[in-house]
Amino acid sequence: MEGRAIERATTVVIGAGHAGLAASRFLGDRSIDHVVLERGEVANSWRRERWDSLRLLTPNWLSRLPGHRYEGPDPDGYMTMGEVVEFIERFALASRAPVRTGTNVTSVRRAGDEYHVTTNRGEIRCRAVVIATGACNRPAAPPFRDAIPGSVEQFTPFDYHGPAGLPDGGVLVVGASATGVQLAAELQRSGRPVTLCVGEHVRLPRTYRGRDVLWWMHTSGVWDQRYDQIDDLTRARRLPSPQLVGASEASERRTLDLNALAAMGVGLVGRWAAVRDGRALFSGGLRNVFSLADLKMERLLDTFDAWARGDGRDAEVDGPERFAPTRVPESNRLQLDLRSGEIRAIVWATGFRPDYGWLDVPVVDAKGRLHHEGGVVLDSPGLYALGLPVLRRRKSTFVHGIEDDAREVVDHLARHLAGRR
Ligand SMILES: Cc1cc2nc3c(=O)[nH]c(=O)nc-3n(C[C@H](O)[C@H](O)[C@H](O)COP(=O)(O)OP(=O)(O)OC[C@H]3O[C@@H](n4cnc5c(N)ncnc54)[C@H](O)[C@@H]3O)c2cc1C
Question: If you measure from the C-alpha of residue 136 to the centroid of ligand 1, how many angstroms do you get, rounded to a whole number?
């Protein structure tokens, strides 16, 4: 870096996923000079950090970004990773986003009322920074993973590409949210006996009253609920992803809840609590965990029904449905000997975390969470974030959720710049 000129820009956006590109679109609309710095390529996480068979769990008609939407022949289908990358690349091109690929941000420091952004290609000084580096930079796994016998191979969703990469034999999938249920189903179908560790989860049917359940989330306004109207925001931000899976076409779509997995032969055990003497110990509260998820699903369906009645939509959809409670397995396994050979691989589907290792501004708490109020970083004027869970609305981390958030965050940013002029 020595000897390189220091560049200036009004705003630096970090990350060229859909969130950074949406910010860029609104900055461009306001003629705010900016650059988008991306360590890899546009849509990098969809290219490098997802498994091969993954499809979006959100239907194509819901894939929309500012001024850009799915226009293909299958609005009710679900995109493959290649299609998502293409969709985001087309958006970047159409928006003429000033993206600099291969530019890794290694530090952001505050100096007076500007920011110094250091990258592998030099330094940029700017008046505002938008952090759009994603909420899922690192797979999370419990610390006791270090106590697991070396004979058992361990995988995260970042190094899992498909069943062929795993040894033959039993697999323990840990976590029953979207990733965990999808990988458990794929591995069970590959002929491996799968056991799934189930903690708190969000159960949803794929379709409800003849419509994709995400149509209900979207149209009824549940997803639009704002962060400042949610009673327990901390909890809402920690909510796991729903048990949903995409499909190659709408006619193939199916519910992938625990009853569906059990019917495929997947064994269900409770939350993994500890490893002792080479044994995995599971908590015994499956019945409670199941009832809670069933109850929450019922309540959500009640909300949908009430909305349909109140909004005069009943005639547009089929009649109300209710679903069988999650069946508690007959044998309640509380431990599993990891040295016995029954389990050859573990897949940690225990969530993801953002990575702010490069952020040299004291705005991240001990748990690694950025301190912000609807994307406006507290205590550091000119610093913003996008793409975090329930940032400004329940839909914030979904592709279609970014438009409203990015517009409002860029509005704030523009006011910040104007205020300082
Ligand atoms: C497994 C999985 C499935 C999902 N499925 C869906 C779905 O079906 N539908 C849906 O709407 N959403 C889905 N999401 C949620 C969400 O849409 C994605 O996580 C999406 O990638 C988030 O977009 P983003 O722009 O916020 O972050 P990202 O797409 O992660 O983009 C962040 C970018 O920042 C770059 N970056 C990070 N650090 C730096 C740095 N220091 N310097 C420079 N660049 C950096 C990264 O390379 C990356 O390109 C899914 C998420 C996951 C993990």
Answer: 6
Is any ligand 1 atom within 6 A of the Cβ of residue 399? yes
196 is written with which tokens? 């799934």
Q: How far apart are the CA of 141 and the centre of ligand 1, in A?
A: 19
Atom of ligand 1 nearest to the CA of 136: 53
Spacing, Cα 133 to ligand 1 middle (Å):
7
Give the Cα separation of 107 and 359 in Å (integer).
6
Give the per-residue pLDDT at 1.
47
Q: Would you say the CB of residue 179 lies under 6 angstroms from ligand 1?
A: yes
- Residue 5: its pLDDT value, please? 79
- With a cut of 50, list the residues of the chain below it in pLDDT: 1, 421
Task: Compute the distance between CA of residue 155 and CA of residue 346 in angstroms, rounded to an integer.
Answer: 6
Please work out whether the CB of residue 245 comes within 6 Å of at least one atom of ligand 1. no
Residue from 133, 214, 223, 394 to probe ligand 1 pocket by mutation (most atoms less than 8 Å from CB)? 133
- The Å distance, Cα 59 to ligand 1 centre, comes to 17
- Is 134 near ligand 1, meaning CB less than 6 Å away? yes
312 CA distance to ligand 1 middle (Å) = 37
* 232-271: pLDDT as tens digits: 999 999 999 999 999 988 889 999 999 999 999 999 999 9
Residue nearest to atom 12 of ligand 1 (CA): 398
pLDDT of residue 91: 98
